């Protein structure tokens, strides 16, 4: 996507250093391994790119909050977010692998681990593992209301993480079911999530609004790759004023009730704010 690149640990450091100068002091890391396998073992490899990048960032920029996406889809050869048994994702067999990955990321120095897999019970499994391994201060940001959406396309292409068969509707949420979203958020908070997130953002502002009204917990929203790509494409064609549109989008997400926004627009928005053009 325009303005978004895959980066090695050293280039990530340079990029995050520039972001920090602009006032963006929290980042989230997604990994792309050299090799993938059936169980996604690269997710808990202490020498993997994400873990190495966490160590570099926390050593050089200790005041930057470093979050790590916690999911197996980027690491599995089949592109699903969990262990496959008899052609289906095995929820319970996936939990210990997610917990193992969380501990590896925390050991590297991650401030926040962010499970995005949508397996039932994963927040509790991760919290127990982190506490048992001596990482009680590592926070959990749960993708609690993550819908089976068509807006993830550009990211899946970049991370080569699209499912090789079937889809993710069996474990991601039905976009039409807002009540289920509230149940998922409640369950994750009960299991020990420190913050929760709604994903995607723009077609789910009502979910953000209701979550804000129901739950007294930090609430984020993920302004995902497809949402970003549409803005970039329209701006490139001269159809919209990109700065005004980005400002309205981010304002709308916050107005709906999000405390923070995970967005690919962050670098552009920070620069525009810094130079006074936004």
Beta-strand level of the residues, as a percent range? 15-25%
Spatial ordering of strands, largest sheet: 1-2-5-6-7-8-9
Succession of helices and strands:
HEHEEEHEHEHHEHEHHEH
Helix content: 40-55%
Unreliable stretches, pLDDT < 50, 5 or more residues? none
Total discrete domains: 1
What does the largest sheet look like?
Answer: 7 strands, parallel
Number of strands: 9
Quote the CATH topology.
TIM Barrel
Q: Assign the structural class, choosing from mainly alpha, mainly beta, alpha/beta, alpha+beta, or little secondary structure.
A: alpha/beta
CATH top level class name: Alpha Beta
The whole-angstrom Rg is 18 Å
Give the averaged pLDDT, no decimals: 92
CATH hierarchy: architecture: Alpha-Beta Barrel
Describe the structure.
By secondary structure, the protein is of the alpha/beta class. It contains ten helices and nine strands. The strands form two sheets. It has a seven-stranded parallel beta sheet. It has a two-stranded antiparallel sheet with strand order 3-4. Helix 6 (178-191) crosses helix 7 and helix 7 runs parallel beside helix 9 (242-256). It is globular and about 50 Å long. It starts with 8 loop residues before the first helix and ends with a helix. The mean pLDDT is 92.
Brief summary:
It contains ten helices and nine strands. It has 278 residues and is of the alpha/beta class.
Which features would summarize this protein structure in a list?
single chain; 278 residues; alpha/beta; TIM Barrel; 7-stranded parallel β-sheet; two-stranded antiparallel sheet; 44% helix; globular
């Amino acid at each position: 996507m325009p303005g978004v690149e895959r980066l090695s640990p050293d280039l990530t450091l340079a990029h995050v250093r520039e972001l920090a100068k602009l006032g963006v002091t929290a980042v989230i890391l997604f990994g792309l391994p050299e090799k993938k396998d059936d169980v996604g073992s690269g997710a808990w490899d202490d020498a993997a790119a994400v873990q190495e990048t966490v160590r570099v960032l926390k050593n050089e920029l200790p005041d930057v909050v470093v979050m790590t996406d916690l999911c197996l889809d980027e690491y599995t050869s089949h592109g699903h977010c969990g262990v496959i048994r008899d052609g289906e994702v095995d929820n319970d067999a996936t939990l210990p692998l997610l917990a193992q990955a969380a501990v590896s990321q925390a050991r590297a120095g991650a401030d926040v681990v962010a499970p995005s897999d949508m397996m039932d019970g994963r927040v509790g499994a991760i919290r127990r593992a982190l506490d048992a391994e001596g990482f009680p201060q590592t926070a959990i940001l749960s993708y609690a209301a993550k819908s089976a959406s068509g807006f993830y396309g550009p990211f899946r292409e970049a991370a080569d993480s699209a499912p090789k068969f079937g889809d993710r509707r069996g474990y991601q949420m039905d976009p039409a079911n807002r009540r289920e979203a509230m149940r998922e958020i409640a369950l994750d908070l009960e299991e020990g999530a420190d913050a929760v997130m709604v994903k995607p953002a723009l077609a789910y502002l009502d979910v953000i609004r209701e979550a804000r009204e129901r739950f007294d917990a930090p609430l984020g929203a993920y302004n995902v790759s497809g949402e970003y790509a549409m803005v970039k494409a329209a701006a490139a064609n001269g159809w919209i004023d990109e700065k005004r549109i980005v400002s309205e989008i981010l304002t709308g997400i916050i107005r709906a009730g999000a405390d923070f926004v995970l967005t690919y627009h962050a670098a552009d928005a920070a620069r525009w704010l810094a130079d006074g053009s936004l």
